[in-house]
Amino acid sequence: MTGALKGKRVVVTRAAQQADELCTLLEKNGAVALRYPCIELRPPDELTPLHQALDNLLHGGYDWLILTSANTVHVLADTLRRLNHPIDVAAVGPTTALAAMQAGLTVTTLPATHSAEGLAAAMPPLHGAQILLPQSALADKSLAVALADRGAHVTAVAAYTMGVGSGGIDLVAELRAGTVDAITLTSPSGFHNLITRLTNEGGDSAQLAHIALACLGPTTAQAVSETGFTNLISPPTPSLHALIQALAAHFAQ
């Protein structure tokens, strides 16, 4: 079925340093990957809490490390690879879990429902546990509160913040020429930044109305649908391989 992707021009909106895997998968299946970074990962405004937390992590100060995005793993990868003592690791979903394993971690908890709520519910008894929760500076406090309500001591720190990306193709021109078949979206922030970047560069969100928008995970799909877009592709499993299969099935029809 992946032959259905042959020659399809698919936009990849992931941050520049994270786009390679998805671009490679698309190209292996015959698609043309068009890079258009919509996220730029930046250090948080205040670095001291993060540095203190990572120093504590390296010295065995936490029982659990909870990871809610592959972005977090990416920005902390150098520190995570230096861990030389056992620690329980929870990941919100398979994409994050894969990134964690690639950084040398063993994921011990992976919820069936890939959301902050699902992750909190899937955790074992936590009374008295010391938990490190590194997240985006834009993340809400719901997961930290849910874990604290179960008796854990939670250190929630900003590991990075996100800006609108730059570089890549001239998407406005591609859309005007009708040469885009699909756009991949791997996070709600990536979608919102796509609209921001497209508008800033002289385009309009209305240009996306008839483009297939391939969403990784239900949270991303919900963010897109709430904005009024209906031409969505959303695989049942939030993984890049499943995203490729869903794109292929869409074009096979």
What descriptors fit this protein?
253 residues, alpha/beta, Rossmann fold, 2 domains, 5-stranded parallel sheet, 5-stranded mixed sheet, 10 helices, 10 strands, elongated
In short:
The protein has helices at 20-28, 48-58, 70-80, 94-102, 116-122, 142-149, 171-177, 188-200, 218-226, 240-252, and strands spanning 9-12, 32-35, 40-42, 64-67, 88-91, 130-136, 153-163, 182-185, 212-215, 232-233.
Description:
By secondary structure, the protein is an alpha/beta fold. A five-stranded parallel sheet has the order 2-1-8-9-10, sandwiched between helices. The protein has a five-stranded mixed sheet with strand order 3-7-6-4-5. The protein is built from ten helices and ten strands. The longest helix is centred in the last third of the chain and has 13 residues. The protein folds into two domains: 126 residues, Rossmann fold; 121 residues, 3-Layer(aba) Sandwich (Rossmann fold), CATH 3.40.50. Helix 3 packs parallel to helix 4.
Evaluate the radius of gyration: 19 Å
Number of β-strand runs: 10
Gross morphology is: elongated
Largest sheet: 5 strands, parallel
Straight-line N-to-C gap: 10 Å
What oligomeric state best describes the polypeptide chains here?
single chain
Give me the secondary-structure category. alpha/beta
What's the architecture of the largest domain in CATH terms? 3-Layer(aba) Sandwich
Write the CATH fold name of the largest domain. Rossmann fold
Model regions low in confidence, pLDDT < 50 over at least 5 residues: none
Report strand order across the widest sheet.
Answer: 2-1-8-9-10
Beta-strand percentage range = 15-25%
Order of helices and strands: EHEEHEHEHHEHEHEHEHEH
The CATH class of the largest domain is Alpha Beta
Number of domains: 2
Helix content: 25-40%
Specify the number of helices.
Answer: 10
Mean pLDDT: 93
